[in-house]
Amino acid sequence: MMKGLKKWRLFSLLAALTVFLSGCGQEELSTLLPAGQVAKDQFNLLLLSSGIMLFVILVVVIIYVVALVRFRRSKLGEDHIPEQVEGSSTLELVWTVIPILLVLLLAVPTVYYTYKLGDVTAMGAVDDEGNAENLVVDVTAHLYWWEFEYPELGIVTSQELVVPMDEKVYFNLIASDVKHSFWVPAVGGKLDNNVENVNKFYLVFEEDSSKLKEGVYFGKCAELCGPSHALMDFKVKTMPRAEFDEWVVAMQSTKKDKDDAGDTAAASEGEQLFADSCISCHAVTADVKSPYPNLTTFGDRNRVAGFMDHTEEALKEWMKNPQKQKPGNEMPAFDHLSEAELDAIAGYLMGLTVEK
Amino acid sequence: MSSVAQKKGFGSWLWDWLTTVDHKKIGILYLLGGGFFFVLGGIEAMIIRIQLAVPNSDLISAGLFNQIITMHGTTMIFLAAMPILFGFMNAIMPLQIGARDVAFPFLNSLGLWMFIFGGLFLNISWFMGQAPDAGWTSYASLAITSEGHGVDFYAIGLQIAGGGSLIAGINFLVTIINMRAPGMTYMRMPLFTWTTFIASAMILFAFPPLTIGLFFLTFDRMFGANFFDHAMGGNTIIWEHIFWIFGHPEVYILILPAFGIFSEIFSIFSRKRLFGYTSMVFATVLIGFLGFMVWAHHMFTVGLGPTANAIFAVATMAIAVPTGVKIFNWLLTMWGGSIKVTTPMLYAIGFIPSFVMGGVTGVMQGAAPLDYQLHDTYFIVAHFHYVIVGGTVLGILAATHLYWPKMFGTMLNETLGKVTFWFFFIGFHMTFLIQHWLGFWGMPRRVFTYMDGQGWNSANLISSVGAVFMAIGVIVLLYNIIMTSVKNVPVANDPWGDGRTLEWAIQSPPLYYNFTQTPLVRGLDSVWIEKQEGNESGITPAVPVQDIHMPHGSIIPIFMTLGMFIAGFGAMFREETSWGLPLLVFGLAWTFVCMAIRSLKDDLGYYVPKEEILEDMKRERGRK
Amino acid sequence: MDLNKKFTPETWPDNPETATFEAKNKFVGFWLFLGGETILFATLFATYLALKNKGPANLEFSTQELYELPLVFVMTMLLLTSSLTSVYAMYHLRNYNFKKMQLWLGITAFLGLGFLILEVYEFYHYVQLGFVYSNSAFSSAFYTLVGTHGFHVAIGLVWITLLIFRNAKRGLNLYNATKYYTFSLYWHFIDVVWVFIFTVVYLMGKVG
User: Fold this and answer.
1) Mean pLDDT (10-residue bins), chain B, 624 residues
2) CATH number of the CATH domain containing B513
3) In principle, which of B111, B377, B417, C62 could form an S-S bond with B168, CB 3.0–4.6 Å?
4) Which of C29, C159, C175 sits opposite B103 (nearest CB)?
5) Which of B312, B315, B399, B302 is nearest to B351 (CA)?
6) What is the residue range of A56's domain?
7) Is B415 on the interface with C (CB under 8 A)?
8) Is A144 part of any domain?
């Protein structure tokens, strides 16, 4: 081991580091298992900086241990008076210059990546026919839920972001009430949703989320925003471009389907109840930005309210007492509805899907 | 006030402490107050760790959790770490430069009582329905929408306590500039005095922005201003800038005095002059200066744009260089020395690897694109606990053992001290090392709970167990303090045997006028020099025995602060009650009247007669 | 220190403000305090510049239309003159001419009072127009910056009035010389701050 370290010092150090750092964490949300270009760039920076820093720690610890072992009073005798050294310009120069070099080694890629990751010049670009070249998603953070609007596609969804793979997806971030922060750990670093200005950045999604155990990437709010900050999760579904296009078409046709259905068949009990109690806050077609989460894709989701199990039981618990589940959110309790009515609404919501 | 050994009743004893302007007593009061809040903040930390030990915990509610994390951070920074450091600065720094007191004894007392009343004001919020809950950074959009009076307590309490810090800072600066003994040039000052000097200068320039920021917050919440209300044209990012223009220097205000304490310890217990004293001084100055240039690295994810981020990233990394210089100078002070592992030295030895780890993770976060991942995660929590606990708190604990005999005249038990260290040190690494990985694994900070199935459970449990170890360490320390105080075995001038600076050449605890004769300083580590040359007393007097001028005590500081305290409640309840406004006016008027009394009443101090000093010197010789 | 010690212009030290140990401390401490105050005002200026003319969508006030430059010009002249008269007072302090010093300080206070009255009038005028404190971020920043300065002026007035009356019968000594001198430092400081307010707030508001 020691021989190998000497021969392949840098290489094996980095290799060991990679194993050390990536040994743990879950694919859905670990920054150590990057699933996109942005996260990979950041991960490379992590490896580089950790390497430099472990080198520094190693040097310090070696000098430190040797000094502690060699210069103990118990060895040197009670009366030993050491030489009162003032200092050494050579040594001091060495440990000024070497850190400067190490810092430069880190500073150069840092500046490079800062500009690379901050580059959103291509955001509004259009091709010859006037079609947008890139997908843009407007993310609005609310207490405590996420709204995703695709302005060029005319669709809105919430709590679950759906994106195509292997292309730059641009984001406009803003908050509607207090400051939040948009973070998908496995895919890239966070950027704040400020209340007064739109922040722009991009992410690239390179892995298909359907291969994950959970089927989605986990997203988090990373800025303290009130009691339920911890529960302000969202999910990200990634898919190949073709699949995404199908999803978009399905979303765009939700309004038409709805209208058609309204004309022909009588509405189910759940739908009726929903129309009486819920529709003023929650839209169920993808063309409407409702004041509270749009539920068009409710049946396709991975969680209820961003963090609860995606079951009818959990949904009923939620409707009966949202404050207990997510303190400080703005949904009123629907405990005046009977168990049967709640069942009906839950059944209806679970049936809202565009992915079948 | 003629002699030391007078028998006094409880009333006059209490009056003596409430009115004291003696820097040594004020130091002890700072230590007491800071120690109380340190334990309080520690209890809050324990609740946090118990809550997070298991997923989906419902031990405490989400709202209460936010109040506890806010108060934990605020208490530890403003009411524990800073006051305890002020305590040591007060008690030791004037002795190190051969002064009789600080430059403004009255203001010193005022600063102390402002800290105490500010701290009380903040913590009274627990009994009035709601404590601050917007985080210790109190970011504006959340802080101005937070309901109840929680954030009001934060804004006004910190305003009062912060004013006290500013006063203390100016006081220490003037003391060091004007009151050094003959021969004590700047480049002969002990490192603790130097770091006190730089930290005080940083207080002077960092606290005014906080004052203004807190006023903005107060005015927005209580007087209808719109600084942070974006619907009215306000801007919340202004708060973030102002807070961090204060907040980043604040971190160095906390760590520099700890650096000073460790510099003293390495030198004393390696029996060797501090290696590279000059570069240590310049590194300190440079750190202080750069500390003001890097605040936006707390705001990499705010969206300031790549240029600002890149500039602040590089500036941040630059701080690693002077800090590295310090680390290597400490190592080389040990190198070739004669190391004796006493309790303070044990803390110093534990400090080096702990602080280096905290420092390097700081550089990692300085790399802006990487910080996009690390910001506001548990990695950050781990990082700042590594620097603040691994640096400042270890420094405070080391100083407690090192200076206890000088401040109280009796030694803390060494064995118990080492027990404390090992519990605290192991618990500390157990608690916070694993949190770096929690951050990598996607766990945001300031979450009151977390769902099962995200791979965070065992790491959080380990972290919580570590916290228990730290708590045991602190309990052993408290036991140690009580036991040794009860026994109260008196100690000599220099109980450690290798003291190098002036404080070790006078009695433990010192006489109330410190030095019978102002000392003449002939070099760095003057006591060491004198002793090497055969002068057993360690001091060459600069003047003959003469009358000593001393200041009078005063009760006005407490009353002045009480006025601010009252005014704070008035401001808070101005809108909802009829008595709010009158109370506000009354409180402010009260304070101004106190100020006027102080200004109009002549206070020229008094003289300690030469005869009394000669008497004290005779008794001291008799004791030997 | 002996308060009853009598001086003549000949025995009076050249720098009475720093003639004793306590005085030296006060002198240095006060300079440092002013350093902190500078940062305090810098923060207020920065905030004002960031929030200038910012308000709700229908904000009807702007620096161009709001500010009454002639009035502010008169205020500026008053305060600048008061700074000059305080210099005369300090000249007499150095020469141990107590009566003249008191007189010039009285004039200083009088000019300062004039400034303050005009400022109160100015604020009253703006409030009459509807430009109240809670009108917008702009109004909050304006009143807080200019008002903080006005508050400093008021404190200075109380301070010098107390000093003038407290020492009227006692005359100069080395104990109160420092108090007078630090007041004059303070007064110059708020004068300099006003020059910045006049330039940054009013002139740049009208022109920029």
Assistant:
1) 58 93 96 97 97 93 95 96 97 95 95 97 93 94 91 95 96 96 95 97 96 96 93 95 96 96 96 94 95 94 94 95 95 94 96 95 95 96 96 97 96 96 96 95 95 91 96 97 94 92 93 93 93 90 92 94 95 90 95 92 89 90 72
2) 1.20.210.10
3) B111
4) C29
5) B399
6) 7-19+28-74+88-117
7) no
8) no
